[in-house]
Amino acid sequence: MSDLFQGGDGTAFPTPRSFQRDALIGIREGIERGHKNQLLMAPTGAGKTYLGLRIAHKALKQGKRATFLCDRITLIDQTCKRAFDYGLSEHGVIQGDHFRQDWSKPFQIASVQTIETRGWPKTDVLIVDEAHTQRDTWVKFAMENEARVIGLSATPFSRGLGKIFSNLVSPTTMHQLTEDGVLVPMRVLSCRRPDMTGAKLNSFGEWQSAEASERGMEIIGDVVAEWLRHGEGRKTIVFGASIAHCEELCRQFNEAGVFAATFTKDTLKPERDQLVAEFEKPDSSIRVLISVEALAKGFDVQDVGCVVDCRPLRKSLSTAIQMWGRGLRSSPETGKTDCILLDHSGNITRFAEDFTNIFFNGLASLDMGEALDKQVRQDGKEERERTGCPSCGYKPFRQRCMSCGFEIVAQSLVTHEAGEMQEIFLGKSKFDGTKVDLWNQLCTFARGKDKITRKSGFAKLKFKEWTGDWPPHDFSFERAPHVEITDAVKNRIKSDNIRHAHRRPD
Predict the structure, then answer these.
(1) 386 is a domain residue
(2) From CA 43, how far away is CA 152, in angstroms rounded?
(3) pLDDT digit string (tens) for 100-139?
C-alpha cells in the first residue's frame, strides 16, 4: 500500500498546526473511549479537508479502506486536488462518469448523490464532509454499518446530529483562528435591506425564496452602488435569494462595468470548471461571483475580500456563517488583511448575539448546536431609526445621514485588540466591558455634545487617560457605532469635569 503515498508514508502532508494536532488527538481519544461515530467541528480555515484526509491516511496505513464523502459535486475536484497535493495520488472517484472511477481502490472520494443511486464501496472508515447537511443514505450507513464515521462541519447545528454522533471534538474557535492569523477580521457595513414584513414562509420556517427574491429585486441598485462605494474592487462573492435574483444582480453589476458571473445549481459542470479556474487566479477578470448556495459550503478561494449578503434568513445561523466564512480565510501572499461584509439582508443584526457566542466560544454540545437553527430571530426597531443621526439629529436616518453625511459602520464582530479584556477602572469602579465598549461609548458621548469641538480628540484623550494607552489604530471614530452610554462612563466624565473646574484659576 506504500504506493498510495508520495514518499511511501504520507510525508507530503504539511506538519499539523497545534489546533489540528488537538483535533486528531481528540478523534483518537474518542476512539479509545469507544465512540464509533464522532463529529469534528472545525471553523472555516481550520483545514477540515486536511484533517479528513489525514484520518483517511491513517486508516490506509493500517490496511483499511476509507471513503471521503462530499455533499456536492463542486467539492469533488477540490478534494481530489488536495489529495494529490498531500500524496494520496492513488484514489478512485465515485461521481457520475468521472474518469478516475475505480471501485477497487482502497481510498475513494465520493459524491453522496452518486452513492444514493449506485450504493456504497467497501469501507472501514467514512469521512463525511459538511455533515450538518444530513442525507438519509449516509445517516443510515452511520447508524447500521460497523464502519467508523467521522463527520466534518464548521456549523453542526442541524437537528438530530446528537443521535448520529456520540462525541463532539471542537479543538478551536473562530476567535482563536483570527488571533492566530488563520482568519482575517470582518468589517461589517449594514446596508439597505428588503422589508420582509409579512413574507410567506417555507416548510422549514425560512422566508420563501420567491418572496425574498421579489423584495430583494427592489434594492439591487443599492447593492451595486454600495459595492462600488465600499467594495474597493475586491474579489467578491454575492449571495442572492434565488437564481432569478442572482441573474438580475449579475446583469446590473455587468451594466455598471463590473465583470460578474453566476454560479448556481443550473450552471453546467464545464462552465463551473471554467468559472472556478478563472476566479482562483489572483488577477481574475471576474470580480464578482454570484450564487444562492452553491458557493456557501466548502468553496475556498483565499483572496476573496468582500462578501455581499442579499439572502435574508430568520432561523438558519449555520447558513449565514457559511456564507460569511467564504471571505474570512487569510491570504498573506495577496496582502489581504480583512474582509468586508456588505449586509443587505439584515442577517448580521438578527444573528449578532448567537454569532458572537459561537465566534468566541465554539460549541459545547451538539444539542446546543441544534437549538441555534431552530430559533426565529426578530427584526427589532433599531435605536438610531428612532433618535435620528447620532451626529446632527437629522431624520429620517438609516445608514447614512442625508444632512451631514455621517455614516454608521457596524463595529466588526471579529476584530479584537490583544489585551482588550484587561480590567478597566473608572476611578474606583470597575468598568463592566471591553476597550471596544469603552471606545464606542466615548465616541457616542462626544458626538452628542455640541460644546466638544474636537470630538475624536476628546474620545482619544479620555481613552488614554482612563486606560493608560492610546486607542489602537483600527479604533475609528467615524466607524464607531452609536451605543448606550452607561452610568459608569457618565459619572466618570462628570467627575473629571468637576475636578478640572476646581483646577481652573478664578
Answers:
(1) no
(2) 10
(3) 999 999 999 999 999 999 999 999 999 999 999 899 999 9
Whole-model pTM? 0.71
Q: Between 153 and 383, name the one with better pLDDT.
A: 153
- CA atoms of 153 and 496, how far apart (whole Å): 51
- Provide mean pLDDT across the span 169-183: 91
C-alpha to C-alpha distance for 384 and 439, rounded to whole angstroms: 18
| Whether residues 327 and 448 fall in one domain | no
pLDDT mean across residues, the chain: 86
Residue 20 contacts residue 94 (beta carbons within 8 Å):
no
**DSSP for 417-433, written as a single string:** -TTTTS-EEETTEEESS
Q: Could you tell me if 345 and 311 are in contact, meaning their C-beta atoms sit under 8 angstroms apart?
A: yes
Helix locations, 5-135, DSSP H: 18-32, 48-61, 74-85, 112-118
C-alpha cell at 8: 511511501
CB atoms within 10 A of CB 127: 28
The whole-angstrom separation of Cα 400 and Cα 54 is: 49
The domain of 150 spans 2-172
Q: Which residues contact 471 (CB under 8 A, 6 or more apart)?
A: 435, 439, 459, 460, 463, 464
* CATH number, position 207: 3.40.50.300
For residues 346 and 274, membership in a common domain is answered with yes
Distances (CA, A) of 305 to 63, 159, 183, 340, 498: 43, 32, 12, 6, 48
Distance of CA 85 to the CA centre of its chain: 26
The cell numbers describing 44, all together, are 472555516
**Which distant-in-sequence residues (6+ apart) come within 8 Å of 469 by Cβ?**
463
Higher pLDDT, 133 or 37: 37
Q: How many domains does the chain have?
A: 3
Q: Quick check: 3 pLDDT over 50?
A: no
Phi, psi for 125 (deg, rounded to 5): -135, 125
Q: How many CB atoms are closer than 10 A to CB 56?
A: 30
Q: Give the separation between CA 438 and CA 354, rounded to whole angstroms.
A: 22
Instruction: Give me the residues paired with residue 406 across strands.
Output: none
Write out the H or E segment, with its range, that includes residue 329: none
Pairing of strands 125-128, 66-70: parallel
Q: What is the mean pLDDT of the segment spanning 74-90?
A: 90
- 390, part of any domain: no
Q: Cell 474582509 appears where?
A: 339
Say what the pLDDT of residue 300 is. 80
Cβ neighbours, 10 Å, residue 293: 16
User: Hey, is 188 helix, strand or coil?
Assistant: strand
Task: Tell me, yes or no, whether 147 and 214 share the same domain.
Answer: no
